[in-house]
């Protein structure tokens, strides 16, 4: 923390270690392409002493997207590290469980008291189980959809952590019997059935500011005070959840220091060579 505004919320002090997420460079007065980042005081969280900067940096887009899907859309209970209940509230299907957003979704769902069934490559089985998944299926196995439907006859909730190709269709079919709901990361996603509700999300709505994609031709999104309040609440809870290990970062792969390390890291992502890990670059 370099400077604190006189009206800034959060009780910050110069020198505090903080973390958060910002919306790129579409606003003239704030963004990520700068030496110093300007943020709203209540849209950041204080990094606990036992958490590294690298680990804290992973609780950005992926973690807030998971919260948006579960707490804001599906209305799951807010995570409470002290909550202890027997039994489960229901079952959640997480498609592509090894993505960063899915890893956080699995954990938040478990904290909310839900059973989690997920799909992934067999090489990621131990990874997703380590983050709390109760059952894991191979997404490439043509029998997986029928197996999940048979094993979880009351399944009605799904999170599409891949949101490309056939993933939306898979999720819709998995919850169709119970007229379920699918949360998708594709802002253009639609249901393939009248029996299923597909709700697309985009975490940028959490900042409570209007924005557009690929303007002037792309869709526009109105400011959402409700989403902004959700992000502020999540960041107020996050230090405690991270400090005691209730919510863990994905596995980290450090790329070194300097802006020149960013492009090679992006190339690895495009080539699909970073499964189940989060790339981290230190800028200085």
If you had to describe this structure to a student in words, what would you say it looks like?
- The longest helix is centred in the C-terminal third of the chain and has 19 residues, at 225-243.
- The protein has 284 residues and is α/β, with parallel strands linked by helices.
- It is built from eight helices and twelve strands.
- It folds into two domains: 18-60 and 225-282, no CATH class; 62-205, NAD(P)-binding Rossmann-like Domain (Rossmann fold), CATH 3.40.50.
- 28% of the residues lie in helices and 16% in strands.
- The strands form four sheets. A six-stranded parallel β-sheet has the order 5-4-3-6-7-8, with helices on both faces.
- It has helices spanning 53-56, 61-73, 100-111, 125-130, 144-151, 167-175, 225-243, 262-270, and strands at 18-19, 45-46, 91-95, 115-120, 135-138, 157-160, 181-184, 197-200, 211-212, 220-221, 252-257, 278-282.
Summarize this, please?
The protein has 284 residues and is an alpha/beta fold. The protein has eight helices and twelve strands.
Work out the radius of gyration.
19 Å
Note the beta-strand portion. 15-25%
Tally of structural domains = 2
Supply the number of helical segments. 8
Biggest β-sheet description:
6 strands, parallel
CATH class category of the largest domain: Alpha Beta
Question: What characteristic shape results from the CA principal axes?
Answer: globular
Mean of all residue-level pLDDT scores: 93
CATH superfamily of the largest domain: NAD(P)-binding Rossmann-like Domain
Straight-line N-to-C gap: 15 Å
């Amino acid at each position: 923390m370099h400077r604190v505004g006189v009206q800034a919320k959060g009780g910050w002090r110069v020198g505090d270690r903080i973390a958060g997420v910002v919306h790129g460079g579409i606003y003239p007065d704030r963004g990520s392409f700068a030496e110093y980042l300007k943020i709203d005081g209540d849209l950041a969280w204080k990094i606990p002493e036992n958490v590294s900067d690298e680990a804290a940096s992973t609780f950005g887009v992926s973690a807030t997207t998971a919260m948006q899907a579960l707490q804001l859309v599906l209305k799951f209970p807010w995570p409470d590290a002290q909550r202890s209940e027997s039994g489960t509230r229901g079952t959640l299907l997480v498609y592509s469980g090894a993505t960063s957003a899915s890893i956080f979704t699995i954990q938040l769902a478990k904290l909310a008291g839900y059973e989690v069934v997920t799909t992934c490559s067999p090489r990621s089985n131990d990874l997703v189980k380590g983050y709390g998944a109760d059952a894991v299926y191979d997404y490439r196995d043509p029998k997986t959809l029928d197996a999940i439907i048979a094993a979880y006859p009351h399944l009605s909730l799904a999170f599409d952590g891949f949101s490309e190709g056939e993933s939306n269709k898979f999720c819709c079919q998995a919850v169709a019997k119970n007229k379920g709901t699918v949360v998708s990361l594709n802002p253009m996603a639609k249901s393939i059935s009248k029996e299923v509700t597909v709700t697309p999300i985009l975490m940028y709505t959490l900042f409570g500011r209007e924005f557009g994609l690929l303007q002037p031709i792309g869709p526009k999104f109105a400011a959402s005070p409700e989403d902004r309040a959700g992000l502020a609440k999540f960041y107020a809870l996050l230090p405690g959840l991270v400090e005691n290990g209730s919510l863990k970062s994905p596995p980290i792969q450090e790329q070194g220091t300097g802006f020149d390390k960013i492009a090679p890291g992006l190339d690895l992502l495009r080539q699909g060579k970073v499964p189940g890990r989060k790339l981290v670059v230190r800028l200085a």
